[in-house]
C-alpha cells in the first residue's frame, strides 16, 4: 500500500527552483459577434491567468486547484508554451519560457511534458499505442531505428504497468480501457525522461477505483524518475493526499497558496474555506454543508472589481470591491423566495440595473418611473433593514434620493494582495490588519 | 445528515413504500449477447425518503433508474416487478407509462442542456410540461405554479422569460429540478444530477435535493458514483456491482461499517480528505455479457473462498435491516470444505479498467 | 469509461490498420448493406467495362466500317450490332464500352487533381487559420456559388483553345468544380480536429507543424474523403455528360462519350429510333446510381451515427 510521500522538513532546500513564475499573465481576446469581427473590434478580454507568481522546487508536487474556468489549464499550458503568455515571466531550469519562439520551445519540451484530462482524446486514434508512445523519440531524434525505438517503448510501457508490453503495442486507443489509456498517455509523457510533468486533471475522467491506481503510478514514477509535478485538479481531496504545496485559483488569480497540510488545517481565504466545506465526503458523521457561497463563478470577461470573490463571499466587507451590479443577485435571491404580488410591487419601483462594470465610486440606480427616486430609496432602505447581514450593504457609503434615481456612493474597491502567515499566504482583506471588518464596527451608516 | 435523516427516518419506517422493485432484470441486446445491466434487483422507496444508488461506471445505476421508468432502447429485455401505487409498471403500455412520467415519477438527467430546448424560453418549457398533464389550468395558474417551483430552486421570477443558454450550468440544473417539481411527483429519480458541476455548485444542488423532502415530501432516488454525496444526502444507500445490489441499508451505518467486501474495498479506494494511504481494487468490473460464475466479485475479492467461484451467494438480512449478498454472512450454508481460500492467478493491468 | 474492457482481446493481427478499415464494412446491416453492395457491383461492372473495353468491344469507338463496308446509319440491334448503330454509323455497344472508359478516366483524373489541390489547401488553411484561411474561404465560397456546369463550361471554353487533349480539358474543368468542396470539408474538419486534445498532445511532445499535419491531423480528417469522392464522382459524371451534351466535353475524335452520344441522338427518338438514346442514357443513369449508392452506403458504414446496427432483441424467457 502506498503511504503519503513524506516531505521531510530537514531535506536540503534546493536553492534554485525548477520553475519560477513571476506575475505571469495569459489573456485571451474574445471576439464578439459578426459586426465586431468585421470592424476588427474585440468584445473583451478574458484574463485566464492574471498576475500569478509561484515557485516549484525540484521533486516537489504543487497542486493547482480551482473550479472550472479558474485558469488552471491555461496556467499549465502557458508554462509549456502551448499558449503564449501575455506578460510576466516563467522560467524553467533557469531558461525564460515566455516569449520563446516555437523551435526553441519544441526543444525544451523534451524536458517538460504533459498528461491530459481525457485519456481517450489525448491519444491519436489513428496511431497504435507503440506509435503514439514512441513518436516523441522520433521527433527529438533520440533513438534511431525501428527496433531500438520499439524496445524503449516496451520498457516504458512496462514501467507504467502496461505489461506484458507486447499485448498493448499494436493496439489502437479504442481497444483499451480508460485506465489503460491514461497509462499509455503517461508512458508517452515520460518516454523522453522529462524533469517536469504538468498533469492536467489526470484522474478526473476515470472511474473512482481506477483513480487511486493512476495516482499510485504517478507517485511511483515520481520516486523512480525524480519527477516534479504540477498537479492540476478541481478535487481538493486528491490534492490533499498528493501534493506538497497547493495553490488555489479563482478567476485567474492565486487566492491562497502554501504548504498543503497547513492550508487544509487552517484555510485563510473564505473561498478555500468554502471549497473545503463543499467537498462531499463519505465520512458518515458529516452533514450537508449549509453555509455555501451563493451563485457560480462570474463571467470571466467581466470580472468583479476588487476581490473577484466578493459577490459570493459570505464575509465580504466594505473594501472588497462592491459595485452597483452586485445588487442584482441580492434582489434575485430575495425575489425568488417571495410571493408574486410582493415581488411585482418591488419590481415596479426599480429601473434597469446596469450589468456593466462600474467606474469610480458613484453610481445611479434608476427608478422605474420619473420622480420615483424617493420611493426607490425607501424600498432599498427597507430591504437593507430586513437583511442587514447582507454583505452588499457594507460596500455602500451613502444612498441619496434624487428625482429619477437613487445616487449611491460606494467604498473604493481595493484589490487584496497576498498576505503571508506561517507557511501559507492568502489574498484577502480580512488578513490586512489595517482594515477593520465592519461587523466589529458600528451599525451600518444610514 | 444527522438531523435530516433522523427526522425522516421515523415517518419513513411507519409508511408503506411508494415504490417496490422486485427481481427487476434489464438486459440490453448487443451483437455479442445479452448484457445483464440490471440482474434481479429488488428495492423499496418510502415516501419522503432519499435512496442513494452508488457503484462504479457500468454497474447498471442508470439502467436501473431508466428501467423503473422503462425509458430504454428498443429491443431491451425487461422483466420483474416495479410496483407503484399497486400497479406494475413493467406490464404497463407505453401510453399509460407516459402519463405516469412527470406527475407521478420525475426524472432529472446529468446534462441539463441536452434536455432543455434551446429555442424555447424557460416559460415555454414550464407551460408545455404543465399543459401536457393538466390541460385544464389557466395561464395565470400555470405561471403561478411555475414561479413557485422556480423560486424553490432559487431561480428568480425576473428570469422566467429567458432562454436556456442565458443560464449557467448550475442554474440550468436547478431549472431541470424545478421542471420536475412543478408536476409534484411522488418520486424523483435523479441520475448523476451534479456530475458536470463544480464542487460548490454541486453542494448547492445536493442541498436543494436534500431539502426537497422537507418542503414537498418528494422521495428521491439519487444515482451517483460519488460516495460522499450519498453519505451526506441520503437516508439509505444501495451499492451496485455488475448489475446487482450487493449491499443495501441505512446510509450512515453502511458507510460507518460496510459489510460487503466490495463496499469495503470501494470505500477504501475512494480518495477523500481523510485519505492517508492509497488502496486499490485489483482487476476490473465483471463482464455483463459473460459474467463470472458464482459471486461476481470473486475474481477480485480478498476474502474469496472456494464456494464463491462456484455458486452465487444468497441475500442475507442483517440485524440492522441491512441486506448483503456475500457468503461471509451465511457461513452455515457453505458446503463443507469450500471455506478454503480461493486460489487464483495474479491479476494484472491487462484485466484492469 | 463505459467502453467495456472485456471485449474479447483480439489475437495479434498481421494487418491491424487494414482490418480497422474493413471492419465496419463487414459489420454493416440492413439497407446500408444493400446500398453498399448494389453500388459496388454496379460501379465495379462499369470499371470492368472501362478496363477491358479493347477486348470486350466488337469495334473501335470511332469505327464506322468493317473491311471497307460502311456500317449502316441508325440500324436497329442485330447480330452484327447488338445495340444497333447511331447517326454517325458507329456501333452503340462500342460507344457504351469505350464511353465507360472515357467517363471513368476523366472523372478519376479530375478527382485526383481536385484532391491534390483541395486537400492540402484545406489542411493548411484549417490548421494555420489567419489571413490565408480567410482569403481561401472567400475564394472557394465564391467558386462554390457558381453553378457547377456553368463553371465547368467556362473553364472548358478557356482551356479548349490551348490544350489539345479533350480528356485533360474536361478533367480540368471538372477539377475546378470540385476543389471548393474538398477544401471546405477538409478545412472545417481540420479546424475542429485542431482543437482535439491529441493535437495539443502532439505539440506538447515537440512535434513541428508539418508532423502534426501529416501524422496527427491528416489521417483523422481524410475519413470523410472516400464518401465525398464517391458521391462527387457520381455528380462529376453528370457534369461531364452535361459538357459533352453541350459539345464542350471530350471531342468525338478523342473518345466515346455518352453525353455527346445522347446529344447527337436527341432527334432520333421522335422517329422511332430508340436505341441510340436509350443505351447511352441508361449507361449514365446506371453508373450515377451505382456511384451514389456506393457513396451513401459507405457514408452509413463509416459514419457511426448513421450506422444501422443489428437490432438485437432480448427475449427474457431465454435468459436463465
Ligand atoms: N483559447 C482560448 N481562447 C479564449 N478563451 C480561453 C481560451 N482558453 C481558455 N479560455 C478561457 O480562459 C478561462 C480559463 O480557462 P481554463 O481552461 O484555463 O480553465 P480551467 O481552470 O482549466 O477549467 P476546467 O476545470 O474547466 O478545465 C476560461 O474562462 C476560458 O473560457
Ligand atoms: N443501449 C445499450 N446497449 C447495450 N449496452 C448498454 C446500453 N446502455 C448501457 N449499456 C451497458 O450496460 C451497462 C450498465 O450501464 P449503465 O449506464 O446503467 O451504467 P452506470 O452505472 O450508469 O454507469 P455510469 O456511471 O458510467 O453512468 C454498461 O456496461 C453499459 O456498457
Ligand atoms: S477580500 Fe476576503 S473578505 Fe473580501 S471578498 Fe475577498 S475573500 Fe471575501
Ligand atoms: S461471496 Fe465470496 S467472493 Fe463474493 S464478496 Fe463475499 S467473500 Fe468475496
Ligand atoms: Mg482545465
Ligand atoms: Mg450512468
Summarize the structure in words.
The complex is a heterotrimer of chains A (about 450), B (about 350) and C (about 325). Chain A is about 30% helix and about 20% strand. Chain A contains 14 helices and 16 strands. In chain A, the strands form three sheets. Chain A has an eight-stranded mixed beta sheet, sandwiched between helices. Chain A has a four-stranded antiparallel beta sheet with strand order 3-2-5-6. The longest helix of chain A has 18 residues, at about 210-225. The N and C termini of chain A lie far apart (about 60 Å). Chain B has a domain at about 280-350. Chain B has eleven helices and 13 strands. An eight-stranded mixed beta sheet of chain B has the order 6-7-8-3-9-10-13-12, sandwiched between helices. A four-stranded antiparallel beta sheet of chain B has the order 2-1-4-5. The two termini of chain B are about 35 Å apart. Chain C is mostly helical and about 325 residues long. In chain C, helix 9 packs parallel to helix 10 (about 260-265) and helix 10 packs antiparallel against helix 11. At the A-B interface, strand 1, helix 7, helix 8, helix 9 and helix 11 of A face helix 1, helix 6, helix 7, helix 8 and helix 9 of B. Strand 1 of chain A pairs antiparallel with strand 11 (about 275-280) of chain B. Bound molecules: adenosine-5'-triphosphate (ATP) (2 copies), iron/sulfur cluster (SF4) (2 copies) and magnesium ion (2 copies).
